Amino acid sequence: MRRREFIAGVLLTGMMRRVQAQPSGKLVRIGVLMAEPFQPLQSLRQELHRLGYVEGRNLRFEYRFAEHGDDQYPTLASELVALDVDLIVTFGTPATLAAKRATATIPIVIGGIAEALSTGVVSNLARPGGNITGFTSLSFDLESKRLELLKEIVPRLSRLGVLASATNPYTSVFMPHFRSDAEALGLMVEFVTVRDKDDLETGLQRLAGARPDAAFVVTDALLYSRPKQIAAFMVEHRLPAMFGFRGYAEAGGLIAYSADQNKLFRRAAVYVDRILKGDRPGDLPVQQATEFELVINLRTARALSIEIPPSLIARVDEVIE
């Protein structure tokens, strides 16, 4: 009898744990703050669905996209706070800082950010404290690696044009590091910044006017919202270009090396679930990317009359023909 009672107790405990692990029937509202509905957002939604959240039943998204430029983020963040969402998911430094300034109580999960420490998003990765946690793509290290890869593709590279966002705080902390790395490779660097999407074409023309041997597009959500325009411009002006998101290579850009953003957003979904179940965001470490992808568009390489070294082809994760 005691054995049957013990087994029944174990089974009941297991059932209770499974019930507790499931999302409650309460409708959860998640605010999303980013430049546009980027592909990784779909990965977040899929992972949340796997974890038991179903849109229209116990989950609702409140989307806010900065369609014109980074200066929209403070207003959009305030709108999400006024809606009293349960949690905010961000992508990029400007969006994350706007959310941080808008609320000190609503949890914020960063789906992806270039650099969390030097931009003032958090002061400690292991224990961020406050209401913010999430994932960073290690962009300082990646920018250096991207530069090396570009030099490998364009061995005679001596003058480099760099396209960046003037309104992203990451740009100001990125520039000194990048300039130092470029100078170590014997490169002259011409920085061109743009303020919003309307300024992009003018910025691209300024970049081409500097007559660089190649171009480098800094990791930034504002710029990434126009991948086809930027990639087509580089091909039209015969500029071999390095990008920080695989979407650029898919849109016709020559080469992209980046953290796997889809996997970062899936991991972010797990953080969302944990926080909604009671974990404090400030106790969850800001985690760094561990998986990266190198994508080369061979069709673009042929259009630019560039021969990709076999040693590089051997290291590529995906080749677009």
Class based on secondary structure composition and strand pairing: alpha/beta
Number of strands: 13
Q: Enumerate the strands of the largest sheet in spatial order, edge to edge or round the barrel.
A: 7-6-8-9-10-12-13
Counting structural domains, the number is 2
* Unreliably modeled segments: 1-21
Relevant CATH superfamily of the largest domain:
Response regulator
Helicity level, as a percent range?
A: 40-55%
The CATH class assignment of the largest domain is Alpha Beta
Outline, from the CA principal axes? globular
Characterization of the model:
By secondary structure, the chain is of the alpha/beta class. The chain has 2 domains: 2-137 and 260-291, Rossmann fold (3-Layer(aba) Sandwich), CATH 3.40.50.2300; 139-258 and 293-320, Response regulator (Rossmann fold), CATH 3.40.50.2300. The protein contains 13 helices and 13 strands. The chain has helices at 2-21, 40-50, 73-82, 93-102, 139-153, 169-184, 200-209, 221-224, 227-236, 246-250, 261-276, 298-303, 310-313, and strands at 28-34, 59-65, 87-91, 108-113, 132-136, 159-165, 188-194, 214-217, 241-243, 255-259, 287-288, 292-297, 318-320. It has a 7-stranded mixed sheet, with helices on both faces. A 6-stranded parallel sheet has the order 2-1-3-4-5-11, with helices on both faces. Strand 9 (241-243), helix 10 (246-250) and strand 10 form a beta-alpha-beta unit. The chain starts with a helix and ends with a strand.
Key phrases:
321 residues, alpha/beta, Rossmann fold, 2 domains, 7-stranded mixed sheet, 13 helices, 21% strand, disordered N terminus
